[in-house]
Write a structure and sequence with these properties.
An eight-stranded mixed beta sheet has the order 2-1-3-4-5-6-8-7, with helices on both faces. It has 298 residues and is an alpha/beta fold. 33% of the residues are buried. The longest helix is centred in the middle third of the chain and has 16 residues. It is globular. It has two domains: 151 residues, no CATH class; 79 residues, no CATH class. The protein contains 13 helices and eight strands.
């Protein structure tokens, strides 16, 4: 282990997933139950009640059609769609099954724990405590309280690809029009977060979203790897300027890799790297992102 710690960060951040029989206790029908539960493992931090029972249709469908107000999803029959079927089945999953399956997903590397840090002195819930709650929960309130502090998110954009497929099958549109809404942006953040956490040496993957009132939200903060990252698929100058300002505002005295993805523009202003989002995804997959120069904030 000491030899590993002496390696550069780029060499230490390797894929390392571990799953043994001692970590899980699955039953024969747990795979089908997990498929129903996966519909609610979204990338956004949100309350347990909303996570477990979102409305289907309209703006409640994760804001995907915010750019398409002329489309009324309430009038679209989603009765045979993946999300609709899961919505009907999820309430019948027992709290013990929910906890055990979420516990399995974390150990299997299918999901990660997302913390939301709102102040510098905030104490984050220990991973072992989270695993203990999931493994031993017997009351729904235990999960409600847990989701008040953390979110459990899919490590891949699987949910959104299935949701997108359902919508494409119901509407006379193409994939480009679908992705011009909020779908691609949500998939991008989920992919970047998952790809980063998959390259850590921790058995249970975690990520942190920063949201200090005086600075604003930044999607991903990895203190161990020294990375601050905002994900966007847009080249909107005002939006990018605001996101870059947030990135520069955190930990001003600390040298970090500060990155904001874009729709296509690329550059470096001496503090923050602007990288087209397809390239950023590739740089994370190859590990080249760790070669970017670190800078202090302003």
């Amino acid at each position: 282990m000491s030899e590993m710690l002496n390696l550069p960060v780029k060499e230490r951040l390797i894929e390392n997933r571990l799953l043994t029989h001692s970590h899980v206790n699955l039953k024969a029908d747990d795979l089908t139950t997990m498929a129903d539960l996966i519909a609610y493992r979204v990338s956004d931090a949100c309350r347990y009640t909303k996570t477990m029972a979102p409305k289907v249709g309209g703006v409640e469908l994760f804001g995907i059609w915010s750019n398409h107000p002329e489309v009324d999803l309430e009038k679209i029959d989603l009765s045979d769609a993946f999300i609709y079927i899961s919505k009907d089945k999820a309430p019948d999953i027992s709290v013990q099954d929910k906890g055990r399956i979420l516990h399995f997903m974390l150990w299997a590397g299918l999901a990660n724990i997302e913390y939301r840090k709102t102040e510098n002195t905030q104490q984050l819930l220990d991973v072992s405590d989270i695993l203990g709650i999931l493994k031993n929960c017997t009351d729904e309130k235990q999960l409600v309280d847990l989701f008040g502090e953390v979110s459990i998110c899919l490590a891949t954009p699987l949910f959104y690809t299935r949701l997108g497929e359902d919508i494409l099958n119901k509407l006379n549109i193409d994939i480009e029009e679908l992705c011009s809404g909020g779908l691609l942006g949500k998939m991008l953040e989920l992919y970047v977060r998952g790809a980063l956490t998959l390259r850590t040496t921790k058995n249970i993957m975690t990520s942190t979203k920063l949201d200090y009132p005086e600075t604003g939200e930044v999607d991903i903060y990895d203190s161990r790897a020294g990375l601050l990252c905002e994900t966007t698929k847009s080249d909107d100058e005002a939006a990018i300027k605001e996101k870059v300002s947030r990135i520069k505002g955190y930990f001003k005295e600390t040298a970090l890799i500060r990155v904001c993805s874009t729709g296509g523009s690329e550059g470096f202003d001496g503090t923050c790297h602007l990288i087209p989002y397809p390239k950023l995804c590739c740089m994370i997959d190859t590990g080249d992102i760790w070669s970017l120069p670190r800078t202090k904030g302003v």
